[in-house]
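Can anyone check this?
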Amino acid sequence: MTLYVDIIFLENIFMNSIILLATGVILKAPIRILRNLIASTIGSIYAIIIYVSNIEIYSNFFLKLVLSFAIIYVAFKPVNIKSFLKYVVIFYLTSFTFGGVAFALLYFVSPQDILLQDGVLIGTYPMKIILAGGILGFIIITISFKNIKGRLNKKDMFCNITLNSSNKKTKITAIIDTGNFLRDPITKIPVIVVEKDKLKELLPFIILDNVTNIINGKNVELGEYASKIRAIPFKSLGKENGLLLGIKMDEVEVDYQDTNYQIKNVIIGIYNGTLSRNGKYSGLIGLDIINNTEEFAIISHN
């Protein structure tokens, strides 16, 4: 069997990239192309070292474990231990799924060309088999986890939020809304939608009583809040097109899954209505606000 190191290197980069992409999609984590490529290259270099080297340490279980930790950290940069362990579990589940699919395809198509060396699958099999295995594995794992996520415990859908503006605070319960991608069109700062009635202890009545007037550009004395006002376009909440009045917060604290996030650069969108019929929540927060720690400037997480 004739093997080419450059082909093995590229194949491993491709498969590693697909596995990391699937891991990010499952966890709704931001996908950084450069980080993904660097992490995939690290894994591919290790595969080449195992193939060309006879040094036993390179096939050591703990070294492989440390390598996978490094790949995950480079690709996603988890914010804490709990988040890191979540990435590890999904990464390995995805890897096992992809490995099983790829091996099954190779076994049925060209079993004579398969060589397994120190846990690394190499051979002269067609590149289209690797491509098909990656695509099929991606489809299987994403569909499976989509169905599993649909059955999550209800407590995973809610979080407690403390809004902080001008030395005033108020607390609300918000639902994690994966469809909430509202942002300020100019600064791209994310928006948490909150019922107007829940903001009476936080914002002055002159703002809450003149939401429509402010959006329409009428003259309203806003004082220190003038620089914090935003107009947020939306296509939901019962309207095809509309505007929410947004107020930039000094800080927002989010308690979610035993973790406390203190977040800068968040805007509150004032909703003049009721979000929950049973009153279980009064706000909508996008999951990407919690996951995307770099972009949204999470200053601490406990």
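Reply from J.R.: I decoded it. DSSP finds eight helices and twelve strands in the chain.
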